[in-house]
């Protein structure tokens, strides 16, 4: 069997980049679907150096035409789609804000990327995942389990993604398509911004983490995603798995 072909939205940096590099190390074909062409192309080249096949496609995860065009380009070039990872998130995600100060425009931006983007990705990828008996994976957050102080919009859309995972796993299971999510805690530019914006965040995060560190985007987060996309996880669906060093103890 040929190596898997996967798409990762928002993979021009941060956690998405780590996932891309990890899958590249396994020899996979990895499409970086992002708005920033220069950064996305650079990550695709890194995937090449790791032993995979890196590709870049321009993609706005909140826009139906853009998502559909991206998936069409992947299938036209590589003839298949084995996994779709929706990693993109709103640029407002790490910004702490009181609920009273959240504008409708800001809420729309959160929902557009995380919720609308998940729906659009699922709809565009589904027929191709049926053909490959592939997998959809969403990146959510521990905020979607337990909420976060001054991150109400972010917590709301991340909780919505978890509900979508459970529903689609039941709907798509008979077609052989698996749907899962992970809730990662990893070092990234977004994490750095969040820590800088909220001096109380660091003690809250690290004070309750049994392993005492944030995860590595490649070695900790990427390996979990690669497992969930692979046939080694062929009996795992409908779950949101915290990959956070034990910070959010849920069951």
What is the structure about, briefly put?
With 251 residues, the protein is α/β, with parallel strands linked by helices. The protein has helices at 14-25, 37-49, 64-78, 104-132, 143-146, 152-172, 189-197, 201-207, 217-229, and strands at 5-9, 29-34, 53-58, 83-86, 135-139, 178-184, 240-243. It has nine helices and seven strands; from the N terminus they run βαβαβαβαβααβαααβ.
Q: What does this entry look like structurally?
A:
By secondary structure, the protein is α/β, with parallel strands linked by helices. The protein has one domain (5-243): 3-Layer(aba) Sandwich (Rossmann fold), CATH 3.40.50.720. The chain has nine helices and seven strands. It has helices at 14-25, 37-49, 64-78, 104-132, 143-146, 152-172, 189-197, 201-207, 217-229; strands spanning 5-9, 29-34, 53-58, 83-86, 135-139, 178-184, 240-243. The protein has a seven-stranded parallel beta sheet with strand order 3-2-1-4-5-6-7, with helices on both faces. Helix 1 (14-25) runs parallel beside helix 2 (37-49), helix 1 (14-25) packs across helix 9 (217-229) and helix 4 (104-132) packs parallel to helix 6. The longest helix is centred in the middle third of the chain and has 29 residues, at 104-132.
